[in-house]
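Person: I have long wanted to understand how a fold can be written as tokens. Underneath my words sits a plain record pairing an amino acid chain with its backbone structure tokens. Those tokens are not coordinates but codes from a learned vocabulary of shapes. I should like you to check that the lines agree and flag anything odd. The protein I mean follows directly.
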Amino acid sequence: MTKTVKTRYASIDDAPQIAGLLDKYRVFYGQEPAPTESLEFVKERFYLGESVVIVASEDDQIIGFTQLFPSFSSVTLQRLWILNDLYVEESKRHLGVGKLLLEAAKGLAKQTNAKELFIEGADNNPRARKIYTSFGFIENKDYHYYHLPVTSQKD
């Protein structure tokens, strides 16, 4: 990296910059741009304490973020973290920013005595899946994951 990139826990003051990146992340996954809704979503997570956001910044400009949601395993009686979002500005990719964010997320998991971090990788994003496996994430071949839509975007 040519400049110093630092990671830190985000605060509500970072919401506008995070929301801008979140909206780009959403568009990457095929959603229509929704900057106002993205900002409201980020603010709501902060206000309700529903997630932890870690940002990567360069010269006080946020260039990447990861958002983690808490969960628990009833079987092992331990905390889990779902690493739901990971996004780095396109012009800052290939600089190791994603790995720095993953390191920070791993640090949070260790700090909170979590059993594991969970992350999903879309089939159409092999670059991300390669980063996850090179970081040490293990592809789960023992379980099938399912989802049940309960609302549609048209509701």
